[in-house]
Amino acid sequence: MFGAWHEWLVWLASMLCAGAAVKLMDDYLDADFDKCRGVRTLAVRFGRATLPYAVALGLIGAAIDVHLAVAVFFGSYVVGMFSTWRETLPTRVPAYVEMVVAAAISAAFAGWQLALWGIAMMAVIDWLDDVIDVTSDKQTGQSNLAARLGVAETLLLVLMALCTAVLSNAKLTGLGFIALTVLSVAAELATTRVWESCDEDGGMEA
User: Fold this and answer.
1) Prediction pTM value
2) CB pairs under 8 A, 24+ apart, for 48-52?
3) Angle at Cα 121 formed by Cα 83 and Cα 13, nearest 5°?
4) Does 194 have pLDDT greater than 90?
5) Where does the chain cross the membrane (predicted)?
6) What does the DSSP 8-state code read for residue 88?
């Protein structure tokens, strides 16, 4: 009995560390926009130090369970580029090429089934977030999947991704939602709002 609980706790700890690393990097990329909205995330407060902290968390997650951490990280990488899959990246290749490479790396190191779970689970989380934020994103001129396809269509994609995640690994899917809840609460508690907005020149005003 203890062995089963230990395995579940190891998976959860790895998910939390890898998920926190992905969250920090995502907030770092959105730092300028968050400043304009008057939102001070940890990435806004940490500044350039955010990336070393994210790397450290990712390495801890990999040390706990390398296969799971790889699946979470590269699953997030693939899903993160889904909405811009035709754009040319700094590597001078289309985003879909890097998506395929990331999926292949995940499958090579974590196994195809765990890699598939990582992509599907990250898609569920990302697309649900798009549905929740569709109104606020439209107001701020941001584009997300729900805004482009429609809420009903996006929810259908979420359902398909969820079914894929459950069929790939039901236990990890359940733990994934627990990890998501913990990380969401932690992010909310660590975020402050100063009620500033961007002026027309991109500056900030109180």
Assistant:
1) 0.85
2) 50/24, 50/25, 51/24, 51/25
3) 125
4) no
5) 53-79, 100-125, 145-167, 174-195
6) B
For residue 15, the number of C-alpha atoms closer than 13 Å in the C-beta half-sphere is: 24
**C-alpha torsion sign, points 145, 151, 155, 157:** negative
Contact by Cβ (8 Å): 175, 182: no
CB count in 10 Å sphere of residue 61: 25
DSSP 89: P
Buried b (16+ CB within 10 A) or exposed e, 72-89: bbbbbbbbbbbbeeeeee
Cα→Cα distances 1→4, 5, 6, 15, Å? 5, 7, 9, 22
Q: What is the pLDDT of residues 86-132, one digit of tens each?
A: 788 787 888 889 999 999 999 999 999 999 999 999 999 999 988 88
b/e per residue 161-182 (b: at least 16 CB within 10 A): bbebbbebbeebbebbeebbee
Helix (H) or strand (E) holding 159: helix 151-168
Beta strands in the chain (DSSP E): 39-40, 192-193, 197-198, 204-205
Residues 201 and 135: their CA atoms lie apart, in Å, by 24
